[in-house]
Write a structure and sequence with these properties.
The structure is a homodimer. By secondary structure, chain A is α+β, with helices and mostly antiparallel strands. Chain A contains 8 helices and 8 strands. Chains A and B meet through strand 4, strand 5 and helix 5 of A and strand 4, strand 5 and helix 5 of B.
């Protein structure tokens, strides 16, 4: 299958999940919403630059990271089931404080402010969908943050295993440790303890 | 001033901050958006119950907490500048996993699903405003979560002092410690270290 057709199929599939969109609207939307296909290793966003696009992951894995005292620290993973990549830097057009890198070959919806405005004007139902996605994302991250505050490092890892099954066998322990706010050595100790207590 | 008039004045003030609303629309919205005035100590939401309202703080302070192994743990503070109180439990009508208590006499916008639908139908511009608020909240909490992951307990406390000036002299150290995911003893040690290093 041609890459472009494959990309449009993924977009069609994604839009079909919204009950408020009929087939005709989806077909029209697929024509105007841009999908890009960055390959593994592509740097989508660079610390210090003003983002001119926001993304939604249709397929693949994007890692968000920043440097703290010269050390690379992972702050988010985006995949098909945790897809919305946006930030205050995109919304307010200020320099990004993080980087985004594709960890796999990806298919991404790539939005930009001008095009989004035109598309929303032509398809007001898009506003509804964006609203739903924002509300969903906000609720998810609020829960994640509360549970992060409340949990011990071991519980954070157990919750990660339970809630981020989309990342199974896709990310290194090194990046997981960073994402859970611990050193790789701490994560290794926690994993050993879990294995030995389940034997 | 009568309590009801005072409440409506706060609502008018709040709505005036949105450039997309003209004075006539604001006056009409003030008539249909309910504002409640719960007193200090009021329990707004109780763990295990399905929330029938969501809130926005026009004035006052609301604390979110839950019990972990029988211990009360604070997971959020809502004030005039961090006002949106919503959750997946309200959106999906499932039992709440947290409690909400007023720490001061409050003025709150109280939304409910049916009324919100009617108001949005009559004032479509409301959708725009809700969208803006959601996006703003989402960006804020994403940043907060990233910075929480990346920071040491001491840095978390310093960031809290810098970013949550709205809470100055309004919340106890006990609740702040809990909110920062540390024991009151750890917070006390950190505060002593900051004082002694600045002398």
């Amino acid at each position: 299958m041609l890459e472009a057709t494959k990309a449009k199929n993924y977009l069609f599939q994604f839009l079909s999940e919204f009950p408020s969109l009929d087939n005709h609207t989806i077909t029209e939307l697929v024509k105007v919403i841009p999908v890009i296909a960055p390959t593994k290793g592509t740097l989508l966003m660079k610390e210090g630059l003003i983002p001119n696009e926001c993304y939604f992951v249709l397929k693949g894995l994007v890692r968000q990271f920043q440097f703290v005292d010269g050390v690379e620290r992972t702050t988010e993973f985006y995949t098909e089931s945790h897809g919305t990549i946006s930030s205050t830097h995109y919304t307010n057009q200020t320099p990004s404080n993080f980087n985004l890198v594709c960890m796999e070959d990806c298919l991404l919806i790539a939005g930009n402010i001008e095009l989004d405005e035109i598309n929303i004007k032509n398809f007001p139902v898009l506003k509804e969908i964006i609203n739903q996605m924002l509300e969903n994302d906000l609720n998810l991250i609020k829960e994640k943050h509360s549970s992060f505050i409340l949990s011990s490092p071991k519980d954070r890892y157990l919750q990660f295993l339970e809630k981020r099954t989309d990342l199974l066998n896709r990310v290194s322990l090194h990046h997981i440790a960073s994402y859970l706010g611990m050193t790789p050595e701490s994560l290794s100790r926690i994993r050993k303890r879990i294995v030995s207590s389940s034997n």
